[in-house]
């Protein structure tokens, strides 16, 4: 008499086999990426989803850039790029305004944002938390663009050296900013100055707000990105002669541009 295999037992065995063999596309490596991402090729960025049903193929591509200044500044700066992107993809392209690095990362992770430029300090967060795939940096045919951390104070301030920042109120920009927070915390101790210990840190939110805050006397000094400082001067928003630069760091690579890992290839 033929032996019938109980259906419930068969289902249980099948589930166990799937769980133990990695069948059905189980991720075997993700490194430090969030649980929802996978990195089977060990390139430290999220892989494209294995199944095409999980690819995003929006009719409108949303682009944005890290809001190190007011978002409207970048909407106009990247207008020509958006037009080029629309021409080569055949899709509508719109600018998505965000007010912080954290908001940009979340927009990418949730599928609201498809193509983006992330500031230096935010790039690692975007890759690990948002599934960002960086593919390019800004530059020209001859070289890559870079920038430095500069520490500024008012020209007529009594502060004349980094040592004079002790006991003062200093504007950092945001937690994830490289030149506005991460680099000062890494570099300043070597100058005998530890943020939050030797001076009081107050977050301004953006580089231009730190710069204008120093000019207005709201902060005694601020570490900011040199390219933002120079761009504001070129636009007539500030006069460089109103400031004293106390410190200039070695150069850093600038923004990374790329796309969401689950965007349709």
Summarize the structure.
The chain is an alpha/beta fold. It contains 8 helices and 12 strands. It has helices at 7-21, 71-77, 79-89, 101-109, 120-130, 178-187, 207-216, 226-234; strands at 60-65, 92-95, 115-118, 132-137, 146-147, 149-154, 169-172, 200-203, 222-225, 243-248, 252-253, 256-260.
* Radius of gyration from the alpha-carbon trace, in angstroms: 24 Å
- Largest sheet properties: 5 strands, mixed
User: Total helix count?
Assistant: 8
Beta content: 15-25%
Instruction: Give the spatial strand order of the biggest sheet.
Output: 2-1-3-12-4
The number of distinct β-strands equals: 12
CATH architecture of the largest domain: 3-Layer(aba) Sandwich
Strand-and-helix sequence, N→C? Answer: HEHHEHEHEEEEHEHEHEEE
Tally of structural domains: 2
CATH class identity of the largest domain: Alpha Beta
How much helix is in the residues? 25-40%
Please specify the SSE layout and strand pairing:
Blueprint (H helix, E strand, L loop, with lengths): L6 H15 L38 E6 L5 H7 L1 H11 L2 E4 L5 H9 L5 E4 L1 H11 L1 E6 L8 E2 L1 E6 L14 E4 L5 H10 L12 E4 L3 H10 L5 E4 H9 L8 E6 L3 E2 L2 E5 L5
Parallel strand pairs: 1-2, 1-3, 7-8
Antiparallel strand pairs: 3-12, 4-12, 5-11, 6-9, 6-10
Protein described:
By secondary structure, this protein is of the alpha/beta class. The protein folds into two domains: 52-142 and 255-260, Periplasmic binding protein-like II (D-Maltodextrin-Binding Protein, domain 2), CATH 3.40.190.10; 149-249, D-Maltodextrin-Binding Protein, domain 2 (3-Layer(aba) Sandwich), CATH 3.40.190. The protein is 31% helix and 20% strand. The chain contains eight helices and twelve strands. It has helices at residues 7-21, 71-77, 79-89, 101-109, 120-130, 178-187, 207-216, 226-234, and strands spanning 60-65, 92-95, 115-118, 132-137, 146-147, 149-154, 169-172, 200-203, 222-225, 243-248, 252-253, 256-260. A five-stranded mixed β-sheet has the order 2-1-3-12-4, with helices on both faces. Helix 4 runs parallel beside helix 5 (120-130). The longest helix has 15 residues, at 7-21. The protein starts with 6 loop residues before the first helix and ends in a 5-residue tail after the last strand.
């Amino acid at each position: 008499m033929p032996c019938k295999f109980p259906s419930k037992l068969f289902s249980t065995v099948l589930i166990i086999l799937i769980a133990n063999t990695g069948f059905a596309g189980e991720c075997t490596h993700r490194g430090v990426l969030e649980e929802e991402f996978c990195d089977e090729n060990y390139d430290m960025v999220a892989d494209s989803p294995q199944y095409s049903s999980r690819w995003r193929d929006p009719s409108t591509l949303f682009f944005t850039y890290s809001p190190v200044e007011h978002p409207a500044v970048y909407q106009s700066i990247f207008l020509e790029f958006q037009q080029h992107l629309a021409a080569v993809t055949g899709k509508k392209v719109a600018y998505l305004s965000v007010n912080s690095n954290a908001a940009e990362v979340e927009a990418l992770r949730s599928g609201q944002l498809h193509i983006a430029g992330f500031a230096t300090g935010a790039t690692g967060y975007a890759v690990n938390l948002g599934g960002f795939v960086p593919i390019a940096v800004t530059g020209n045919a001859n070289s890559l663009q870079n920038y430095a951390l500069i520490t500024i104070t008012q020209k007529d301030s009594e502060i004349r050296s980094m040592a004079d920042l002790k006991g003062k109120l200093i504007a950092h920009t945001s937690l994830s900013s490289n030149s506005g927070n991460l680099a000062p915390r890494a570099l300043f101790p070597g100058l005998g100055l530890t943020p939050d210990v030797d001076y009081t840190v107050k977050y301004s939110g953006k580089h231009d707000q730190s710069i204008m805050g120093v000019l207005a006397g709201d902060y005694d000094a601020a570490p900011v990105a040199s390219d933002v400082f120079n761009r504001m001067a070129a636009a007539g928003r500030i006069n460089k002669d109103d400031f004293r630069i106390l410190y200039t760091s070695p150069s850093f690579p600038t923004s990374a541009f790329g796309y969401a890992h689950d965007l349709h290839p």
